[in-house]
Write a structure and sequence with these properties.
Radius of gyration: 24 Å
Distance between the termini: 77 Å
Order of helices and strands: EEEEEEEEEEEEEEEEEEE
Number of strands: 19
Helix content: under 10%
Number of helices: 0
Strand order of the largest sheet: 4-5-6-7
């Protein structure tokens, strides 16, 4: 089935795929001896959810069970796909972003820090010294304009800070007040919060 050309042929997996090695490079073949990939990778990781991480030098990418290169090996790190269909990646320059199951970057990978996805598909990003919010499709919920942000609370509001002061945003990315406040408290169960503006307090 396979010609005598390989230094090693691994066992066939439950997916009907075997790993091949020539010197320090690896590839994949199916039950029929058809090469699914070139013998081009320094490392091929086990398949998870139909995808396998591959390494070329110090960089990582992803292939699918057909051997198709879904994402080129150009990332310094490539985490497994999460339930939302996104994999967190890091560039050699240290920037962070996400790749979907088609290998597309959902946002430009220029983030210096990112958070964890919420159950309803929202996440914060940091670019330079400023923060913003995006949704799971990569759509900007807000501009990257905040000096500090806080998680969404049970009332579906997240506190944000700009040079002008504090405010809150909704899950649609809208400020709940046109004003910004010098200080703010925590929301009560009754939906009230104290604020400080121009040295005076209110609710």
């Amino acid at each position: 089935v396979l010609k005598v050309a390989y230094d090693e042929i691994g066992p066939f997996s439950d997916m009907g795929i075997a790993m091949l090695r020539i010197e320090d490079l690896y590839g994949l073949a199916d039950f029929n001896g058809r090469l699914l990939t070139g013998i081009a990778y320094n490392e091929i990781f086990p398949f998870e959810g139909g995808f396998a991480k591959v390494r070329v030098g110090d960089l990582y990418g992803i292939i699918d069970a057909s051997g198709r290169e879904v994402a080129k090996a150009k990332y310094a790190s490539f985490e497994p796909y999460a339930m939302n269909g996104l994999a967190k990646v890091t560039t050699p320059e240290g920037f962070i972003g996400w790749v979907d199951r088609n290998g597309s970057e959902i946002v430009p990978i220029i983030n210096t820090e990112v958070g964890e996805w919420t159950e309803d598909g929202l996440n914060w990003i940091k670019q330079g010294e400023l923060y913003g919010w995006i949704d799971v499709t990569g759509k900007a919920l807000t501009k990257v304009i905040y000096t500090a942000i806080w998680p969404f609370e049970p009332n579906n509001l997240a506190k944000v800070q700009q040079e002008a002061g504090y405010n809150w945003i909704t899950k649609e990315g809208k400020h709940i007040s046109k004003a910004h406040f010098e200080e703010v408290g925590s929301w009560t169960e009754q939906g009230l919060v104290w604020i400080k503006q121009e040295g005076k307090y209110g609710m």
